[in-house]
Amino acid sequence: MANYEPGQDRNVAALNILLMCDGFLIMKKLTREEKFMKLALKEARKASLKDEVPIGCVIVKDDKVISRGFNKRETKKDVTSHAEIEAIRNANKKLDNWRLVDCELFVTVEPCIMCMGAIVQSHIKKVYYGSSDPKGGAVSSSINILEAKNLNHYPSIEGGILEEECSTIVKEYFKSKRESKKIKLG
Asked: What's the pLDDT score for residue 1?
């Protein structure tokens, strides 16, 4: 246990010890996008705790989170209960409007066809996603819904925000599902 002087903050004491030991402390300041994606990851962890595929989403307006959502397909027995749909529904209620014109959506995994349809229909301004979804992503991985002609709205898209973290949580979830299946069969 580190010694520190009376009245000295433990964090300051730990930093002093680190510096005395020629240690390195690398603190990366999160970008705005990473900050909101971290909140989406928090939602994804909530899904995982409920044995749902860990995908989380937040909707932001004027740099404030107005809505959150995570996958609830198993819990609700509802195929439409994806993280994005849950967050869009909550935002619609909060704003008392189906149009989410000045809103941005942050989701941990590339949206599917259904979710991209809801994003387009709700007029969300920009979508940020973490990891790609090669089996069901509808932005660039499987198909690109935004290549469709004559849509009434085309949101801006930016992928790869905290990609490793977003990918890891999903991979770990499915790995644990496979392992528990082996234990049941074995």
From this structure: 43
